[in-house]
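RETRY 2/3 - previous attempt timed out on the joint model. Re-submitting the same 218-residue input unchanged.
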Amino acid sequence: MLPLKCLISAGPTREWIDPVRFISNPSSGKMGYALAKEARDMGFDVCLVSGPVELSKPKGVEVIEVESALNMKRVIDEKFNFYDWVIMTAAVCDHRPKSRNKIKIPKDQFPENLLMSRNPDILKELGEKKRENQVLVGFAAETHMVLESAHKKLKQKKLDWIVANDVSKTNQGFSSDQNEVTLINSDGLENQISRADKSVIAKEILHAIHLSWLEKAH
Ligand code: CTP
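RETRY 2/3 succeeded.
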């Protein structure tokens, strides 16, 4: 039997203002990389689409490096049809500067109000075109109303699973080595995964999804 194919996005995106400034977020990519390693160890064929992070590339995983949300979308859209599972852990910037200045903007000419354009919602568009037997997983990075917002995103983006992640606590989430999350399936059933290293969290998430995948007799 062919190995299951798993596409994972990780890390932040970077939206350049000029050659020396960009807008981004503190995502370290650790959760996505941990999932990629675990999926590889489960025997899956893994492709990791990674924003700029300071992590070494996992062996045995195809890694495609991207910078902006638009770059990330282009790569993921090209790959999407060829994968069984797609897991979006990336902290995609929702906005980008309307234009990227070719040369450095001197500080006294820097605009007081930066004009921004909305980036596409990569995951929501995948939810619209996903095949019946594809599994789509999102991550909800929240600072308040964590579970309520995650349930909403699960429905709005037509996902099979969402991982609710409270990023308001300093000892978990974004750049920490540990996390504490709630995995929610498309029926709205919650499975709390208690605080542990991201490698352990990755294992629990993937095993839960795999069990359900096998039960659906793929
Ligand atoms: N996501 C995406 N494209 C975007 C924004 C988010 O694909 N432009 C994906 C993320 O990778 C994540 C999920 O959508 O899997 C939820 O991201 P999150 O940042 O929690 O929420 P948003 O949809 O951006 O909504 P909001 O910022 O209003 O909370």
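The CA atoms of residues 124 and 157 lie 4 Å apart. Closing ticket.
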